[in-house]
Amino acid sequence: MAKIYVSSTFLDLQDYRAQVERVIRRMGHEDVAMEYYVASDERPVEKCLADVAACDIHIGIYAWRYGWIPTENNPQKFSVTEMEYRRAVKSSKPCFIFLASDDQPWARKFIDKDTTQIERLRNDASAHHLADHFTTPDDLARKVAEAIHNWEKQHGYISTGANIPQFDRDAYFNAMRRRYGVIALEGLTPPQREEYLQIQLRSVFVEQNVRENPPPVELPKEVWAKLEQEKEIHADDLPEGVALDDIRRAREAYFEKPSRPVLDVLTDATANRILILGDPGSGKSTLARFVLLSILDPDGAFHSILDATREAMVAEGERDEKRESRNENREALKDSASRSESATRRMTWAKQFENYLPLLIELRNFVALRAENKYETFFEFLEYLGKTEGWHLNAAALKQFLKNDGRAVVVFDGLDEIFDPPLRDHITQQIVAFASDYPKARILVTSRVIGYRRKNLSDAHFEHFTLQDLDEKQVATFVNRWYGLALAERPDEAKERRERILRAFKESPSIRQLAGNPMLLTIMAIIGKHQELPRERWKLYDHAASVLIQHWDVNKHLQDKRIQHDFIGEDDKKELLRRLAYRMQNGEGGLAGNYIHRDELQAEFEAYLKERYNQSPADATKIARAMIEQFRERNFILSLYGANLYGFVHRAFLEYFCAWAFVWRFEKTKEMTIDQLKEDVYRKHWEDQSWHEVLRLICSSINEKFAGQLIDFLRIEVYRPRSDTILSRPPWNVALAVQCLSELRNLRFVTEQARDLVESVCHLLDLYMASYKEDRLGLLRSEIVPYTLKISPNWPSWPGMCNWLKTRRAFPGADKYAEEFGKFIGAVARNNDQVYEMIHLYAISDKADKRVLAPFALAGGWSDNPLARQDLQTLLKDSIWWVSLIARKAIHQYQ
User: Fold this and answer.
1) How far apart are CA 421 and CA 629, in angstroms?
2) 808 DSSP 8-state letter
3) Which of 49, 60, 631, 865 is most exposed, with the fewest beta carbons within 10 Å of its own?
4) Which of 291-300, 616-625, 713-722 has the lowest mean pLDDT?
């Protein structure tokens, strides 16, 4: 342990000093500072100078104040800060000099009126010693830690490797690689299919971002998403009892803090004790294992991702020969560069912990074996594993190593896996004691957000961070790596599967929310090998829900609570969730609909237990109460989020189970007829956007014959838009009909409905184009045309299309609708020669308001037709600038 003297002025650098002193103590050294004399610049000079001479290192921190100048025995009129620096130099002490950056804003009151003296000191110190500039207190702390760490290596405080008697390092490393190197897919794979994938964790690992501290309020996912994206939320979006002002303050406290890459946080020299919080499946354990594997083999961490990158680049190169678009080549090169940059970044991170000893303690296993009286402490646990697995890590030798060398990264994974609260508190105190006894070790703890009690670890100076959902770029990175490895021998198929997932992410908000969770994204990647997404996303929801329901081990939980019942199977759990979703979705609208009060939840469970299993009221109450307790502790699907309110963790599951409740009643139990489904569900809810996903999922799940009837019902029976009503009542029924049609895999059974729907959209285009309004364009652009493109090229041709195109008049301002109009026509009439003739007439019309409607139709519907390409080139040179502009956009999008 070294003694380190911290010298600076006081008032202007108080926060900076606090961070530096904290770093020194965390690194296992003794800090000597003016705070131990008096909290001001005026301190006992002789005592200070004697302490400087007795220290091993002098740290000088200089901003823009020269500081207190003692009047006695000071003929040169040096400040005490400069006296300390000069004594360190005279005593031949290593001097680490840190200067406030010239670019850093500084309070005027902390700048000397005459800066001559402080500038002289800064210049003198930096001329004779290697100096670094700092900006914030955290920045200063990092740089001080790096300087001390380098000094430790130079002076033998850090050896070149973990030297522990009898410890077989190679055997240990090999055992860890075998245990954690390959992702375990058994629990994520559909039971009807076998997946023999051997995916290396490091090859597909995607670094997530974290935000400091846990979310201050427990809310459903969609509420947090709305807060982050729109930075505002309305009272109607919140359940009763949750105050809008509290949520606004929560957003300010949480989202205003920067989102940082998690590896940056883990390598921050000021953060020796870190707690990573996250939702179920958010990647906490994957991160813990990646940390272990990367420290075991930093070069391997680099080369594994480089191998995947090289394979992807070879595949890209082969496809490049077939590409005509330079833009696509440029994007491929950019993606390859991004992957190489990621590899370099991960190698750099791993190299920082070279020669550290990584230790991963999975707390679930620790507690399980501890209950068998095999050991009591973490050291005894590691010794027990060492004996059974052949790497012989002796507890006493490990303690000695951590005391002396201390270069270890110790990960305690899954604090939330300890279900018994008193035991969890006891283990937490053991972690705190471990961190206190071995301050040189870097400690990482992981836990779920829900149910975590912060106080114990916070009091022990653990810094808290919460994993953020994967964003679009991170999802794309994962999917590219996954399929590049899973389908390495079939690059064309890999490309198709990647595009499925990424298309689903872009087109479906529900899929997008699910894909942000790494575990659910992995499930999507597995399912995506076999079926289209999102057209059959109900199958994805069904499989994902089945996987997650397995974690809801009701019977074991009842046994732990000494309730002797063993009858609740997977079908029962699904039925309970269907009933809950139906009840919740039928409650208040909007985001606030995703909740149910504990009393109502318990009543629903009790009723089911009485009806299905003839349980007595007393037993039903006891069982229901125990099941609800488990939701807060362990369930992935339903969770407590405050004020005795429970909700689905992902709204997508609420919508899926609600839709399945209707399908079950319609197809399985015959409690509902097709007419009741039309009137009680579709007529009642077609204008409520919070119901649209439920209505789409119902259509995708039932027989196509009945789905066709629902589409017709939406199109012509609930509302027929007219020019005098379209302003006050947007035609969501037509949009929803198109969306429901896009859910169907086989249009052979709904040919007539599809043709009629084309006619309805054409009628809608006429109504909209008659008088331009931005909000109407938005509905076409986001709710109709994208779903039309999903169905193409499977649209049955509408016989009236040519006549409609021939007789419709030209509308002024048609350029506002040119893209949507053209994309729709190109999608529903692709490669139809008769329709092309009409679009050709538009392209050569003497009216610019007709010509402008042709480019997107030609590019989207007849891209392989040489005559259509010639029409496009002619339009590109049109004398009307906005016609030419639309042609340029169409060529760019479809080339």
Assistant:
1) 12
2) P
3) 865
4) 291-300
Kindly calculate the radius of gyration of the chain based on its CA atoms and give it in whole angstroms: 33
Amino acid 753: pLDDT: 93
Q: From CA 329, how far away is CA 332, in angstroms rounded?
A: 5
Residue with tokens 């992981």: 446
> What single-letter DSSP state applies at residue 691?
G
Give the closest residue to 448 by CA, choosing from 510, 509, 519, 505. 519
Encoded tokens for 469: 């959902």
d(CA 860, CA 840): 14
pLDDT digits (tens, 9 = 90+) for 93-109: 999 999 999 888 899 99
Find out whether 477 and 342 touch, Cβ atoms under 8 Å. Answer: yes
Q: Which of 422, 399, 425, 397 is nearest to 410 (CA)?
A: 399
Q: Which pairs count as long-range contacts for 833-839, CB under 8 Å and 24+ apart, including other chains?
A: 834/802, 835/797, 835/801, 835/802, 835/805, 835/861, 836/861, 836/862, 836/865, 836/867, 836/868, 837/802, 838/801, 838/802, 838/805, 838/806, 839/805, 839/868, 839/871
Q: Nearest CA to 632 among 588, 591, 598?
A: 598
HSE-CB of 673 using CA atoms within 13 angstroms: 3
**If you ran DSSP here, which 8-state letter would residue 58 be given?**
E
The CA distance from 590 to 251, in Å, is 19
Antiparallel, parallel or unpaired: β 259-261 and 209-212: antiparallel
What is the separation of C-alpha 107 from the centre of its chain, rounded to a whole number of angstroms? Answer: 38
More confident residue, 148 or 446: 446
Q: Are 514 and 545 in contact (CB under 8 A)?
A: no
* Predicted confidence (pLDDT) per residue in 565-622, tens digit: 667 777 888 888 888 888 887 776 444 456 788 888 889 889 988 988 888 888 888 8
SS (H, E, C) 418-451: CCCHHHHHHHHHHHHHHHHHCCCCEEEEEEECCC
The kind and range of the H/E element at 485 are helix 472-486
Helix or strand holding residue 59 (H, E): strand 57-62
- 8 Å CB contact between 417 and 247: no
Residue 523 Cα to chain centre, angstroms? 15
Q: Give the β-pairing of 645-648 and 596-597.
A: antiparallel
62 with 121: CB under 8 angstroms? yes
Contacts of 387 (CB under 8 A, 6+ apart): none
Pick 118 or 157 by higher pLDDT.
Answer: 118
Q: Whose CA is closest to 67, among 97, 99, 112, 133?
A: 112
14-26 and 137-154 are packed helices; what angle lies between their axes, rounded to 10 degrees?
A: 40
Residue 323 confidence (pLDDT): 40
pLDDT (tens digit per residue) in 223-261: 555 555 555 555 555 555 556 665 565 555 555 677 889
Task: Look at residues 595, 786, 760 and name the one whose alpha carbon lies nearest to residue 690.
Answer: 595
Contacts 24+ apart (CB under 8 A), 749-752: 749/704, 749/705, 749/708, 750/704, 750/707, 750/708, 750/711, 751/796, 752/708
Query: Residues 51-68, buried b or exposed e (16+ Cβ, 10 A)?
Result: bbeebbbbbbbbbbbbbb
If you average pLDDT over residues 687-714, what whole number do you get?
A: 92
Tell me how far apart the alpha carbons of residues 247 and 252 are, in angstroms, rounded to a whole number: 9
Q: What are residue 645's DSSP bridge partners? A: 597
Determine the Cα–Cα distance for residues 819 and 839; give it in Å rounded to an integer: 14
